[in-house]
Amino acid sequence: MSTSSPSADPAPPPPGGVLWTLAGDIRGLLMLPAALTLQVAHPAVGAGVDEHSVFRTDPWGRGERSLRSLQLWVYGGEAAAEEGRRLRRLHATIRGTDTRGRGYHALTPANYAWVHATGFPVFHHAYRYLVRPVTEAQERRLYAEWLRVGRILGLRDRDMPATIEEFWPYYRKVLADEIEATAVVRELVATDSPVPPPDRGPLPLRLLLRALWPVLLPPLARFRRFLTIGLMPPDAREAIGLEWTEDQERALRRLGLVVRAVVPALPERLRYLPLAREARREHRARQRRLSRATRPAR
């Protein structure tokens, strides 16, 4: 696969945009399980993850790598496009047969675009619980920024709907024609799937977690299921066949009230993930330098 020259590389979303604020905020971590589950509800994507991913044997490492990759798309600057090329190289050999007996390739535009597309409806839905309902202007801006990230990942303009008006019919058609409760979906929402304890961090902490893991895992698994289903758009939830009760909805709204009150009050070092913090710090420094350079001399 050929790579573009740096001057031709697509640019990440701009500082100050919706994604600039959202992607690095710790509230984004709560949205990721729903987005991942909606991705793998597509038979081709689910089969690819089932057969080629290490999410069962190294869930924490895979999660860490995926999170860093996502941060680079938005905050990576010149490194964003190279991360997109790396992902395409990584997926170039992923192929097989899905649950409907159809051959698939990870980089087939319909499959690759769906993986990227799922983040938009999940973030759009979850934002109203964890931040605030998006305005029409924010919705359009978020989608435009989502398309910019798609170009970083190597998607062509024709691979994704060009406007928000075109996106929702596309999304609903995939839900109607393709989405199902794949084996990976069932694992991701199960509360009894075996998950090893975290293997990152200081040795004493890892040893403590290993000792307490049989006690910690069941409530963590239930909370993961609750967030995964609750922060998934209702039409996607219905297409997969995931149940959601009125009591659960009320609990999610209560959780949202707490999150909306607590997270904005946190200092930046706690509210934003490391790459986002560094990018925000560098952006402020550039703005100060620009301000000094353009200030009239006395």
TrEMBL record:
Origin: domain of life: Bacteria
Keywords: Oxidoreductase
Pfam families: MPAB_Lcp_cat (PF09995)
Keyword Isomerase: no
InterPro entries hit by this protein: MPAB/Lcp_cat_dom
Domain ER-bound oxygenase mpaB/mpaB'/Rubber oxygenase catalytic, residue spans: 20-261
One annotated GO molecular function: oxidoreductase activity
E.C. code: 1.-.-.-
Protein name per UniProt: Oxygenase MpaB family protein
Species this protein is from: Streptomyces lavendulocolor
Lineage: Bacteria, Bacillati, Actinomycetota, Actinomycetes, Kitasatosporales
